[in-house]
Design a protein that fits this description.
Layout lengths: L2 H11 L2 E5 L24 E9 L2 E10 L7 E3 L22 E8 L1 H6 L4 E2 L1 H11 L6 E6 L9 H5 L1 E2 L2 E2 L3 E2 L1 H9 L3 E5 L18 H8 L3 E3 L13 E7 L7 E11 L2
Parallel strand pairs: 5-7, 6-10, 7-11, 11-12
Antiparallel strand pairs: 1-14, 2-3, 4-12, 4-14, 5-13, 8-9, 13-14
Length: 258
């Protein structure tokens, strides 16, 4: 049996499960809101073209308005000034969007401190336990934050000092950017940086260092608690928007049964 035939058979008989990591995209899906005078993107809105009526008696369809960075989405290098001469979404090689998935679970720490940050030692500790990161891998930061996704205020978790959500320190972002095995980094929060990253030096280090190093971000992931620490495969399927800085994205994990 060929490798692909074996995979197809495993998907059919359930020995490989497809776990959907995508947040359903609707007008209620929380999106990033920047403070004034900065401009903000839009969420999703649907405008009916026809709905089994005089405008289209046998069909229904909608026009869609949505920001590139709404809901579960991919950040391409050109999204950030450090990657402005890099790839847009349509230029990302498909093989970079499918790869080994590894999970760093800090949900217990985040439950105690919503501003928890990943540091280089957390990645080093992970490798001491599980081995070196595999080539072309995607690192998923498990925080339990997606449990807040049904309530926009809880999800953003803001006060007068701004949002409080977990993320990565400046040194941690530099570590990820320098690791040649990593293709991308995914989070359960609304953005790939910590909620307080506007106060870091430099600001928004995950955006700055990763996108400048031709690595990609994924946000607003769900069902991360269903993923093994190692052994799954990630499939990232953004729209190939020509010149796009990002795209709403369907994200799947292929997880082998025990």
């Amino acid at each position: 049996m060929s490798v692909l035939a074996g995979l197809t058979a495993a998907l059919t008989d359930g020995s490989v499960e497809v776990v959907d990591l995508t947040t359903p995209l609707s007008s209620d899906t929380p999106i990033l809101n920047l403070p004034q005078p900065l401009a903000n993107t839009v969420g999703l809105s649907l405008s009916p073209v026809s709905n089994f009526d005089d405008a289209g008696p046998a069909w229904a369809w909608n026009d869609v308005t949505v920001g590139e960075h709404a809901g579960t989405h991919l950040d391409a290098p050109v999204h950030w000034i450090s990657g402005r001469n890099g790839k847009s979404v349509d230029q990302i090689e498909p093989h970079r969007l499918i790869g080994p998935l590894i999970v760093i679970d800090k949900s217990a720490d985040v439950a105690e401190n919503p501003d928890f940050l990943l540091e280089p030692e957390h990645f080093e500790q992970w490798q001491e336990t599980h081995g070196q990161l595999p080539d072309n891998c995607w690192v998923i930061f498990r925080t339990g934050w997606s449990s807040r996704g049904g309530n926009a205020a809880d999800f953003v978790n803001a006060d007068d000092a701004g949002p409080h959500t977990p993320g990565v320190s400046v040194a941690g972002a530099q570590w990820i950017a320098a690791n040649t095995s990593i293709s991308g980094f995914g989070v359960e929060t609304v953005g790939i940086d910590a909620g307080q990253a506007a106060t870091f030096d430099p600001m928004f280090p995950v955006h700055s260092f990763l996108l400048g190093a031709d690595k990609y971000g994924l946000t607003s992931l769900r069902q991360v608690d269903r993923l093994p620490t190692v052994g799954a495969t990630l499939v990232v399927a953004p729209l190939p928007i020509v010149g796009g800085t990002g795209s709403p994205t369907r994200v799947y994990a292929l997880v082998e049964g025990s």
